[in-house]
Amino acid sequence: MGNSNRIIHDENEKINMLISMDIIRIGLVDDEGFAYIVPVNFAYADNKIYFHTGLHGKKIPLLKKGVVSFQADKFTGLKTADTACGHSSYFYSVYGKGNAEFLKDNNDKAYALDLLMEKYTGKKYNSFPAKTLDITEVVCIHIQSLEARAHTKS
Question: Where does 4-151 sit in CATH, by number?
Fold first, then answer.
């Protein structure tokens, strides 16, 4: 049941919706062909999504395949009605796909980590110890496509 009038066509609006989200879910495919979905904190800049993770874990080899999907949503309210079928949710939703790249250069890692810190703390730190960078994977998703839908109060 899709409503085509809920599709967002304006690229800037899609990006602003993505930026407003707190958490995205990264969609990967495991070796058995099953979806593996992981929620992560993220930052956006220049058509790229950045997030960090540890050096080990199930998502690392799956991310190294390079192909990812992502999704985020925000519930903004409930539309009520006299009948059960008349109820609906107000929401924003973004989803897309891209290619994952593990950042290797410490300057690139620090840039991405600073974007994350600024998003979640409101502060830029501009400095991360090399020891920390060495034990942190920073992933950049180069966005290939971005889609969005919204059901807003009119």
Answer: 2.30.110.10
